[in-house]
Amino acid sequence: MLRIELPMPPHDNHHYTIARGRKILSNESRAYAEQVAWLAISMRTKGELPREPLTEKLKATVLVIHPDKRRRDILNFQKALWDSMQKAEIIKDDSQLDDVRVIRGITDGEAMVIVTMHEIPDLVLTVDEMRKQGLV
Asked: Which residue, among 84, 122, 72, has the nearest Cα to 7 in the 3D structure?
């Protein structure tokens, strides 16, 4: 199992911007990706993160910790989070994520996300198999 504490990613509405008629990563998302990359380097140096990106299918839990009790959408930051983890070579590709759970948390301190991941077997289920297991 891998556990990573990261700062709160930019909201998906701020992930891209338009420049000269082209859709590009916003400065906020670029800065976030760079911050995640530096944290990954630090964790690898301490032996807390594998040198190579995770390559198998993944199950992940994301604890979204907000600094107060205001209403927020806890799903609108996923793109920046997973793209940054891919760019930092923590995961090979966000298509590896087969099972993701997002949980809301509140703190008096700094907003952050805590991501736990572990590799799982490549179990792609058909709709009939999911119905038999009561998943749909």
From this structure: 84
Contact, 54 vs 2, CB < 8 A? Answer: yes
Q: Is residue 52 over pLDDT 90?
A: yes
The count of other CB atoms within 10 Å of the CB of residue 57 is 16
- The helices-and-strands tally (H runs, E runs) of the chain is 3, 6
The structural domains of the chain, with segments of one domain joined by +, span 2-132
**Does residue 123 carry a pLDDT above 80?**
no
Fold (CATH) for 2-132: 60s Ribosomal Protein L30; Chain: A; (3.30.1330)
Between CA 129 and CA 124 the distance in angstroms is 10
Residues 116 and 2 sit within 8 Å (Cβ to Cβ): yes
Residue 107 pLDDT: 76
